[in-house]
Design a protein that fits this description.
3-stranded antiparallel beta sheet; alpha+beta; 9 strands; 4-stranded antiparallel beta sheet; 192 residues; 2 helices
Length: 192
């Protein structure tokens, strides 16, 4: 048995064999090298596609939320306008003494409603030229205002009950797309 007395000498293959092995391990290292730090083109493309899909989903969600918000604002505006119209109409009808058949050049009709107040003032609601006007006459014409209906294509028509003891006056607002809104009030309010 040979004992290695030289601590610097290593056990293993000879120098020539080591050089050959070292050369082959270098060749092996070159072919199995670790890649450089960074992203491949395929990985970058996949990340960009995922980001694009997420951005499209976010945009669709935000656009849907904005449309919903606009619809709710339009609906609220319509309800607020129709509520103000109902308050005005009910107040006028409740204060009125009578609803005459004729006044000046106006006649009671589905497109015209006449109200006479206790002080002799007349209020005329008239649907003409695609708009509702409320005119006040105290001897002569003292005021006219256009009354909004809540929708652009809405129309207004008037009706009344034939009950002399408890006359009811109704304004019907037809929008064409939704159920008509009917505003009914008792002539003279609770005083009758």
């Amino acid at each position: 048995m040979i004992v290695n007395t030289n601590p610097t000498r290593q056990r293993g293959p000879s120098l020539a064999l080591r050089a050959r092995l070292r050369g082959s391990s270098l060749a092996l290292r070159v072919s199995v090298r670790y890649p450089r730090p960074g992203w491949s083109l395929l990985e970058l493309s996949a990340v960009l596609v995922i980001l694009g899909v997420l951005l499209a989903l976010t945009f669709a969600t935000v656009a849907g939320a904005m449309r919903t918000e606009q619809a709710s604002v339009a609906s609220f505006h319509k309800l607020a306008v129709q509520s103000a119209l109902a308050d005005l109409f009910r107040t006028d009808v409740a204060k009125a003494k009578t609803a005459p058949m004729k006044f000046d050049k106006f006649a009671k009709a589905p497109d015209c409603l006449l109200l006479e107040m206790p002080d002799g003032t007349h209020i005329v609601y008239q649907w003409a030229k695609s708009r509702l006007t409320r005119s006040t006459y105290s001897g002569t014409k003292t005021g006219e205002q256009q009354v909004p209906l809540g929708e652009k294509r809405a129309t207004a028509e008037f009706s009344w009950s034939n009950d002399a003891a408890h006359p009811l006056l109704t304004m019907r607002v037809n929008s064409g797309t939704h159920t008509p809104v009917e505003i009914t009030a008792a002539l003279g309010g609770d005083n009758q």
